[in-house]
Amino acid sequence: MAKIGIMGGTFDPIHNAHLMLGRQAWEEYGLDEVWFMPSHTPPHKTDHLVTDTKDRCEMVKLAIAEYPYFRFSDFEISRTGNTYTAQTLQLLKEAYPEHTFFFIVGADSLYHIESWYHPELVLGHVTILAAGRECEDASCSLEEQAEYLRNKYGAAIFLLHSDTMHVSSQELRERENLGLGIGDLVPASVERYIREHGLYQHPDRKEDIL
């Protein structure tokens, strides 16, 4: 029985903080592999036009290529329509009953998870590994939030003790649009792909961003 970490998300684009979190989960909790699983149609992403699935998948493949314990998974993007984490995790358990799954999330997800589609299913299907950094606008500590979810849902939640890296995909899209450079925040192969394919270039939006 293999221990598999799941790193889900839009990855628009994937960046160094995603990789750091995956490495920390693999090292700290003895995972056999970490599967990077781009989402197909994320129901909550309504603030911007999500980049084409092919481009997002190619960037993930490039980013994880040097890590033998990272794997690309098209499990979610192969489905049609909106994809919800609760459904994906249930289908994963049915498809791979021989594996034990660990869902890797950022600290902010632990505070917002009750607003997700059927959070009781998410928290009941897998062990949660959450980035161990506090959110500035949170009303309680991360450990207090984890304990609250454990008590309410019987969830298995453990914190990851990783370094803090303040970076978001939205920030990277905006920086690239403005020509500010993102080479220190994404793998070199991902930066080259973005430049070669002209991703995140929206000249008509630069005034709005500024």
TrEMBL record:
Q: Which Gene3D superfamilies match?
A: HUPs
UniProt keyword terms in alphabetical order: ATP-binding, NAD, Nucleotide-binding, Nucleotidyltransferase, Pyridine nucleotide biosynthesis, Transferase
What InterPro entries has UniProt attached to this entry?
A: Cyt_trans-like (IPR004821), NadD/NMNAT (IPR005248), Rossmann-like_a/b/a_fold (IPR014729)
Q: Which reaction does it catalyse?
A: nicotinate beta-D-ribonucleotide + ATP + H(+) = deamido-NAD(+) + diphosphate
Q: Could you tell me one molecular function GO term of this UniProt entry? A: nicotinate-nucleotide adenylyltransferase activity
Residue ranges annotated for the Cytidyltransferase-like domain, each copy included:
6-175
Source superkingdom? Bacteria
Q: What is its EC number?
A: 2.7.7.18
Top class in the EC scheme: transferase
Which pathway does the record list?
A: Cofactor biosynthesis; NAD(+) biosynthesis; deamido-NAD(+) from nicotinate D-ribonucleotide: step 1/1
According to its UniProt entry, the function of this protein is described as: Catalyzes the reversible adenylation of nicotinate mononucleotide (NaMN) to nicotinic acid adenine dinucleotide (NaAD).
**Family label:** Belongs to the NadD family.
Q: What is this protein called?
A: Probable nicotinate-nucleotide adenylyltransferase
